[in-house]
Amino acid sequence: MTEGLTIKKANEGLKSKNFSAVELAQSFLDKIGEKDKKIFAFLNLNKGVISKAKEVDKLIAKGKEIPLLSGIPFAVKDNILVKGLKCTAGSKILKDYVAPYTATTVERLEKEGSLILGKTNLDEFAMGSSNEYSAFGATHNPLDLERVPGGSSGGSAAAVSASMSLFALGSDTGGSIRQPAGFCGVVGLKPTYGSVSRYGLIAMASSLDQIGPITKTVEDAEIVFRAMSGKDEMDSTSVDLPKVRDKKSSFKIGIPKEFFVKGMDKEVEEGIKDAILRLEKQGVKFEEVSLPHCTDYALAAYYIIMPSEASSNLARYDGIKYGFSDKGAKSLKEVYFNSREKGFGKEVIRRIMLGTFALSSGYYEAYYLRAQKVRTLIRKDFESAFSKVDAILTPTFPNLPFRIGEKTKDPLSMYLSDIFLVAVNLAGLCAIALPLGNKKLLTPSMQIIGKPFAEDTIFKIGKLFEKTCQKE
Amino acid sequence: MISKEEVQHIAKLARINIKKEDDFSGELSKILDYIKKLKEVNIEGIEPTSHPFGIENVQREDIPKKKDSDLKKLAPDRERDYIKVKKILDQ
User: Fold this and answer.
1) What span, in angstroms and rounded, lies between the C-alpha atoms of A334 and A371?
2) How large is the ipTM?
3) DSSP bridge pairs for A189
4) Which helix (H) or strand (E) holds A279?
5) Does the reported pTM lie above 0.95?
6) Could you tell me whether strands A285-289 and A252-256 are parallel, antiparallel, or unpaired per DSSP bridges?
């Protein structure tokens, strides 16, 4: 029963007593039992989920009106804290770490009555584009088990794609929600920087990180986003969303010419062309725009800014306050050096090294400061495009999902799979990834980028597109 | 190009042991080569961006609250109510 469900359908099923919250949660647990041995989307399951479901059933039995998200089972990426549950960040250094508090996003969803099924696999500290950098083993793409699910929120995307969860939370620093959502044929939203609280998210690059939903439909993404967004006093960068919503119903979309690069898969190019035609039939107008700094230069700037911030954020893993500590160390210095050597995986060490290098004496201006200036140019590219169009449409990735093991030997080729995604984080914009083809097979995906805090606009365009797919 | 000696120096700054045979210099050099592209961009007169919307100095009331003291229990080495570290004076 888990396959065809959306949040609204599940809510109706609960209200009309077609099934109970316990039955709903159990059906997802059964699905996990049946499928996850081969997929490995979940690192840990939440033992308390059935007793929470019983509470929802009690409310329904009493005839109480329940919120839309009540009794809806969801999965949480394992770099988002849930009090009392392990939170490993996919790393050996946090293998046994039990979260002492709950992230604001999860708290808001739990307040609505949503039920946590478990914690999902990820690239270590969300650093990766394939889930192969998890210290606990790779997640497999449910659409083709030989291929990667994307990353770093690969476990969350795989869980939704395989109907092992109704929705999931991911985090996106440079594409980590959109790319795996695209690889797994589901929807992924990267919200505007600041619209969702980061409190309780294990920090990678604080000026880029955002938590967002991975779902089956645009409507579901919107429901989850609305429930968890808004100012949180525990995250000083969070803000309330503007009250006036976009009332527009006709849109003009920009197509950035720089995003149609050589070496792009034919399926991707054809998928995007077909999507444009479909949207045109819905009355959407298209116009070519130019974002000259937003592909290669954005990726280069990203690979300075992200590791710089990450190297500073990950300094807290010192073997003293929490997490793994090397018992054989003889001095304080050895505690630091040994715990970090043994606790971190290779990709994490690589990025810490890159960041430490970029911030080190003599290199700061040539690398970090220059990258931050290029970041300004990226913002300006978008500002000038958005003076002409309501949204921007690009492919989510140039090439269809790669095979497990194909790119781990060459870090740079892995980085290039996020070439269309990182500029959005650098400019702080919102963007949604939508599957373009048959959701049962590997399929291309498109990204719709919106102005800051214009999630409404990209939801509306996304729904217009979905409508054209339902008619078939 | 980054040399093996530089790799060891950066590792020291980052407080991580890196074994001689774990050669990061090749990989890091390749990535830095890609990053070099940024030199092509004219950045004259451009201000740096550290926050996408330039939000500054967000403040709130400083109200003391009692939170669970579970945090200390997470420390790998403890004695009574203290977090224990190796001695630092003889180093």
Assistant:
1) 34
2) 0.94
3) A432
4) helix A266-281
5) yes
6) parallel
